[in-house]
């Protein structure tokens, strides 16, 4: 999508990690990185409260989160994850909430769950239905690897993820703005924020999944060599 068609509303992307990693957030307005900030601490409720207040203070319209917005309903992969696989995109398998109970590996998924819950009063979760009503605030789940895959015409490598994702951002934001993003977590958050801005602008997207286990939004597959 041509970046000049993005609105001037603020869009936020959030990369969710476990307790030690925390939450990396990037606020974009047009092609400008307004702020890149890490929220981390020993008390999850307090950290998430600060993060949500920051999103509100930024006057964001859309918040894109790199974490599952729902658990598996039947013990298998979620419908959105199966849809990604059909598109050739490898993804994380989200278990049932009961299966994840007591397992430290899933702390980041629980952090994502808590974040989505806290965002709801201010940024209701996307529940399908195509385009978002103009001016309405919302949040949604997305996945940086899937964004990269789609933006690069089906060519994304986990091994080269930092270089590939940084290159995508530089194409749209410019090297000076991307230089504000220190590390892969902020780069991933910025990719999510870009997609949020595109959704606000009315870009065509794929909404994968269902209401019960959550939708995951990704951009359309771009043809390599075509104008952006």
Can you describe this structure?
This protein has 8 helices and 7 strands, in the order E-E-E-H-E-H-H-H-E-H-H-H-H-E-E. The chain is an alpha/beta fold and 228 residues long. The chain has one domain: Ribonuclease H-like superfamily/Ribonuclease H (Nucleotidyltransferase, domain 5, 2-Layer Sandwich). The strands form 2 sheets. Strands 3-2-1-4-5 form a 5-stranded mixed sheet. The protein has a two-stranded antiparallel sheet with strand order 6-7. Helix 1 crosses helix 4, helix 5 packs across helix 6 and helix 6 crosses helix 8.
Quick rundown:
This protein is an alpha/beta fold. About 35% of the residues lie in helices and about 20% in strands. A hairpin with a 2-residue loop joins strand 2 and strand 3.
The CATH architecture: 2-Layer Sandwich
Radius of gyration: 16 Å
Helical percent range?
25-40%
CATH topology: Nucleotidyltransferase, domain 5
- How many extended strands? 7
Describe the global form.
Answer: globular
Would you spell out the secondary-structure blueprint of this structure?
Elements: E1 10-16, E2 23-29, E3 32-39, H1 44-57, E4 60-66, H2 79-86, H3 97-100, H4 107-119, E5 138-141, H5 144-151, H6 161-173, H7 175-178, H8 184-200, E6 205-210, E7 214-219
Parallel strand pairs: 1-4, 4-5
Antiparallel strand pairs: 1-2, 2-3, 6-7
Helix pairs in contact: 1-4, 5-6, 6-8
Brief descriptors of the model:
single chain, 228 residues, alpha/beta, Nucleotidyltransferase, domain 5, five-stranded mixed sheet, two-stranded antiparallel sheet, 8 helices, 20% strand
């Amino acid at each position: 999508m041509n970046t000049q068609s993005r609105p001037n509303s603020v869009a936020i992307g959030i990369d969710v990690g476990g307790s030690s990693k925390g939450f990396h957030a990037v606020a974009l307005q047009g092609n400008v990185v307004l702020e890149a900030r890490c929220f981390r601490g020993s008390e999850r409720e307090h950290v998430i409260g600060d993060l949500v207040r920051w999103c509100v203070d930024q006057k964001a319209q859309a918040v894109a989160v790199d974490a599952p917005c729902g658990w598996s309903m039947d013990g298998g992969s979620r419908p959105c994850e199966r849809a990604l696989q059909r598109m050739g995109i490898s993804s994380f398998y989200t278990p049932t909430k009961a299966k994840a109970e007591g397992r430290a590996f899933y702390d980041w998924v629980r952090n994502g769950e808590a974040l989505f819950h806290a965002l709801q009063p201010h940024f209701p979760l996307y529940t399908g239905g195509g385009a978002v009503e103009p001016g309405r605030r919302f949040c949604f789940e997305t996945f940086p690897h899937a964004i990269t895959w789609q933006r690069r015409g089906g060519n994304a490598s986990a091994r080269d993820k930092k270089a590939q994702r940084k290159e995508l951002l530089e194409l749209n934001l410019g090297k000076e703005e991307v230089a504000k993003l220190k590390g892969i977590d902020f780069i991933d958050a910025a990719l999510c924020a870009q997609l949020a801005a595109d959704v606000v602008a009315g870009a065509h997207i794929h909404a994968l999944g269902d209401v019960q286990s959550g939708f995951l939004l990704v951009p359309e597959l771009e043809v390599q060599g075509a104008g952006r």
